[in-house]
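@channel sequence for tomorrow's demo:
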Amino acid sequence: MKLRIKFLYMVLAVIFMTGTADMTHARRAKKEPQAKYVFYLIGDGMGINEVTGTELYNQATGNGPERINFMHFPVRTFVTTYSASALVTDSAAGGTALSTGTKTYNGAIGVDADRNPVSTIAEWAKDSGAGVGVATSVGINHATPSAFYAHVNDRNSYDAIARQLIASDVDFAAGAGFLTERRTGLDAVFYEQEARGEGIKVFYGTEDFENVSTSYDRVICLGGRNIGELPYAVDRKEGDTALKDFVSTGISYLYGRYPEEGFFFMIEGGKIDYAGHNDDAVACFEEVNDLAEAMDVVLAFYNEHPDETLIVVTADHETGGLMLGAGEYSMSPEMLAGQTMSENELTAKFRQKFMPAPPQQQRRGQRGNGPGFGQQQPQWTPPTWEEVKGFLQENLGLWDKVPVDRRTEAKLMETYQSTFGSKDGGNDVRSLYAVNTRLISDAVIYLNAKAGYQWSHGSHSGSPVGLYVNGVRAREFNSCTDNTDIPRLIARIAGYETNN
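structure tokens (generated this afternoon):
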């Protein structure tokens, strides 16, 4: 009898505890707010050292804010980035992990390791009734943005990705322009026309963005006409489109159309990666600053809707293996102040000044009615070392603000001799997205190292990347340890129904 009574008490206790736990969970679920407006910012190639290095650069040169806004969010942690096929991911697999919560092989977009399509957080948001925006500073159908709306086995299938964007439910898409494949013979204009044919309004450049109306069902904003990518931030000129222009236009459009339903907005700073592949610290840091400027626009919206907005910032991977510090615990970021343009732009300026055409292509005369008819054209003559040295001094600060020892000068002079001593007048170094004159590349790398920024290589690394979060239930992101954790947690906080 006593055993029965004791057993009955135990059963009642379990029922009571279970019921209490359920009630507590229900109360907690009822009290927990949901994110109505979600901003998901991805710095392509933006490792932790890229962000920290940018702050140090800004503080020393005054070229940007002393504090990178997102670096000081309430939640600051890190996540791993490996793919299903390699310990070092590419942007396609990294973007797919960040958009779907699923690991896949390098080169895959929106499919799993077995090439089966997997739904994305942008699709989850749309299925839940929210508006969806995707913006990037590079091609609108490049790897990272396409991972949010496309499903292809190969990231280089630009034409298929472009068609999937046009057929998707993305409300607002923005980027430099459409990337295309040479083998098909189709250009960017073709896909712009295809988009219009499907009722999508297409706009070009900041002045045109003023015409974007919330009455349009779908909108595509491009950096300009026939632009494959936006200029590096450090090279930007007045009138050029910036990432923040896409973000400002996107917020106005999405909030105007979905004020009650809310929206999901993915924003990519794509050229941080490009600069990392070039081992160009100044271009890299100015791209991080550019992402921070876009964040200023996001934060202005957040300040008006602090109880309904979630902001998540991370990266798909790190690029370049950037190290902070050189020699005996030494850094001198102020030495970078002498570089006022990217390595790409500096190469273009160098070639225009000193290499107007390879020697064998110089015209000795021409037939026609224009000036010089019947006259022998002047022969191309290579510049002297002193002229080249003056160019590096003027545009990088070498020998002026940055000391150059004899050994380094001898190496640069040797590269100068091989550059202008070759038959075709060229001596280039190729990175993933650029072909630069080796002398310029070597000079930029030397400047970086003197300032205390050393690059391990010109490709991706397997380093963990930062995760910076602000807004609704931000502290829950402290639980994230891998990039696949992020989209699923966002979906839970925003109330999206996942389909995977």
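heads up for whoever presents: The CA atoms of residues 99 and 148 lie 6 Å apart.
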